[in-house]
């Protein structure tokens, strides 16, 4: 299954005969991207399940409708098992950013977390699920593919500094209860990712 968020509307791509409760189903063969975007703009509460004959092929064909940009980021825990959050554009988010040419996903993830939060001593524990979301940039539809890693920092006490030039206004570690509260003001793909963690 592939789960993509288009303007915060969940659009899931599943194998044929898979039905999801509360989702509007459409066959991939009958999917018209312009119509899909129109439906989403008209009804932002809709949830869409795209049923595929061949999930991998249909997903790759769907990606041809977008400029694909790859990013990497981290879900970071400190020694107290608190989670690292950033506050950007009036929402709670997780640190992530563009993968540079020739850079591996895991190296990019550590670099972006370090740059956005001024945190160091990062060690990757495991790779998490990949998230997908669509946005418009200069009239183009962009598919952001983000590779996520669970990390921890080995340094007990450090001064976190938000990377303000990236629009980040706050950086902090939050315990599980406070992290759950962040989910009420974050993005769909972050909620999806945090289902694995919280």
TrEMBL record:
Alphabetized UniProt keyword annotations: Hydrolase
InterPro entries: NUDIX_hydrolase-like_dom_sf, NUDIX_hydrolase_CS, NUDIX_hydrolase_dom
One Pfam family linked to the record: NUDIX
Lineage: superkingdom: Bacteria
The Nudix hydrolase domain, residue ranges: 67-196
Signal peptide location: none
Protein name (record): ADP-ribose pyrophosphatase YjhB (NUDIX family)
């Amino acid at each position: 299954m592939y789960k993509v968020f288009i303007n915060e509307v969940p659009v899931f791509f599943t194998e044929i005969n898979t039905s999801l409760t509360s989702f509007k189903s459409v066959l991939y063969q009958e999917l018209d991207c312009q119509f899909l975007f129109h439906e989403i703009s008209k009804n932002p509460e809709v949830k869409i399940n795209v049923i595929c004959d061949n999930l991998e092929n249909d997903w790759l064909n769907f990606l041809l409708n977008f400029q694909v940009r790859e990013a990497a980021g981290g879900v970071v825990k400190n020694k107290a098992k608190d989670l690292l959050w950033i506050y950007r554009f009036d929402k709670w988010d997780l640190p992530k950013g563009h993968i540079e040419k020739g850079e591996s996903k895991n190296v990019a993830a550590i670099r972006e977390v370090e740059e956005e939060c001024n945190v160091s001593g990062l060690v990757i524990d495991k790779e998490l699920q990949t998230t997908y979301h669509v946005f418009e940039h200069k009239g183009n539809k962009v598919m952001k593919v983000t590779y996520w890693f669970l990390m921890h920092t080995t340094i007990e006490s450090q001064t976190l500094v938000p990377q303000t030039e990236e629009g980040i206004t706050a950086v902090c570690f939050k315990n599980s209860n406070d992290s759950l509260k962040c989910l009420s003001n974050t993005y769909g793909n972050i909620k999806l990712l945090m289902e694995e963690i919280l």
